[in-house]
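Weekly modeling sync, notes
Attendees: AB, CL, MP (scribe)

Item 1: holo prediction request
CL wants a bound-state model with 5CA before deciding which constructs to order. AB pointed out that an apo prediction alone won't tell us much about the pocket. Agreed to run with the ligand included and paste results into these notes for async review.

Input as submitted:
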Amino acid sequence: MRLSRYFLPVLKETPAEAQIVSHRLMLRAGMIKQSSAGIYSWLPLGYRVLRRIEQIVHEEQQRAGHIPMLMPTLQPADLWKESGRYDAYGPEMLRIRDRQDRDMLYGPTNEEMITDIFRSHVSSYKDLPLTLYHIQWKFRDEMRPRFGVMRGREFLMKDGYNFDLTKEDALHAYNRHLVSYLRSYERMGLQAIPMRADGGPIGGDYTHEFLVLAETGESEVFYDAEVADLSFGDRDIDYDDVADCQGILEEFTSRYARTDETHDEAVFAQVPEERRRSARGIEVGQIFYFGTKYSEPLGATVQGPDGKPVPVHMGSHGIGVSRLLGAIIEASHDDKGIIWPEGVTPFNVGIVNLKQGDVATDSACEGLYRALAAQGLSALYDDRKERAGAKFATMDLIGLPWRITVGPRGLGNGVVELTSRRTGESEEMSAEAAVARVKDIYAAHL
Ligand code: 5CA
């Protein structure tokens, strides 16, 4: 993408309404624009990151054997009356009446709708196990929408639902979700710690929230310092291997790690004092096993092996896709701007032309731009007639992890400069070597 033809409305001033750094940087970098409280347009740069995050979530869900689909945002109230949640959900639910006077609602989550789909089409235990998911906009009329996309009213969520014959099978689905979530967050450059949580309006005895530690997080958390040293890494996992998935659950959840809703001082006191930590965290996902809570009232039963109808065991599992942009920025920025992890960056590399209009420099930049594209790498080429300082400031603000700087002096010596946004370190090399290096860096992320 050539910056001269792109739409990147960066702001010079820090917007007064933004209280936390991720919100400030998303506004300043021209990623989002608020349309009303807690509702945003995704401008091109923000949209690119949102799509990257979605793609990682899709890939990891499908790796775990979960099946993508798409349900609507508007739902009939009748389904929620059947489950008993229509009244219980309270003022967070946006209720709408259509021209035929039918009660509708903008979905805050989809347990009822997916259970309805299930009961209409699945009748035998032989069709189980089944896990369906979608990535769709949700609406929750939050009392205090704030911090930009962190606590929105309209937000993008991945929600997945498993249907199993037995509790044991459903717990395996729970474990698969835990593993796939660990992998997803790590690909986004994040450490998200699974913590014991409370079921809330979704319900259920087994539930973990995934928290990214950050001072600006809305949740108070208590944990054993050892959990912060765990990482999933690049190990291979067979999602059908029940014992393997269970082993990973135990590895990541056996130490003390709880949100304030389930925190227990007496149990926490058993953690050696030097390892006890309390901090704040951003909840980027939650998994639930809730048994037959929805399948019983909605009549989602299958014919079991003995011919008798049994309600299916279910769980639901959510990732805060749009919230993740805020969480990633909270975890990865400096005083100049955002520092995108390679896994989610909107463009792989920025090209800064130090002397726009100089024939040799322009042609070197064009060549580089094409060479990167030929390798499947995306570049944002700053081809504007701006001062070098302004170009660097924009690149630093929008946070592409790698920048290639091209100027007449370097070209005279046959070199360009490759700079890491994270460390600020630069290295001179030929344009071909820079392309090869960037390709290597991204090999693990493409
Ligand atoms: N049905 C279940 C799981 S599919 C569910 O709705 N879970 S949830 O309520 O925990 O939401 C899943 C994730 O969505 C949360 O972990 C959080 O990351 C994100 N989320 C929830 N509310 C908001 C909000 N107001 N703004 C942005 N993200 C949100």
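Recorded for review: Residues 347-443 form a domain with the Rossmann fold fold (CATH 3.40.50.800).
Action items: CL to compare against the apo run; MP to circulate these notes.
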